[in-house]
Design brief:
flat; 5 helices
Amino acid sequence: MAAGVILLVIAALLGIFGILAILGGAMMGQISNLAGQTGLTEEQANALMTVGRTFIVVFGGVALAIGLAHLLSGIGVLRRRGWARILGLVMSVLGVLPWLLVLASSALAATQRIPAGYLQDSGLTVEEYGQIAGTGWIIGIAFAAIGLAAYTYVLVVLIRRGREFA
């Protein structure tokens, strides 16, 4: 039952993320002209906005589709359906992989040194930058650990309790 609930929670989070991404992509066309502020020509700024908007809307659509797959598998797992177990296993394996990458990259980023001159015009000291970056690394590692734990739990439960699905 917990595996189904976790899949439903992930589905809700992906749905919210997908909707916000699509709305954000749609609103990119409303941003004022960036040409004068970024050093880009008006044509370059418009091309950048078009590509960015398309990418974000497609990314949001993919998140919605993956969220729908999680929703279907969560409902099916709660009803003990065999197809939902398989779909839940696939979603869990596909969910474990990016969270492993996020965890590894966050841990790797925490060990990187700041290049000389990197903070020259930022107004930050090395200590201030280290505190800000450290907070980001901790949050990244925490989110990755939570996501990885949730998907791993679902994966283990669906593998070990396969006989309960008809």
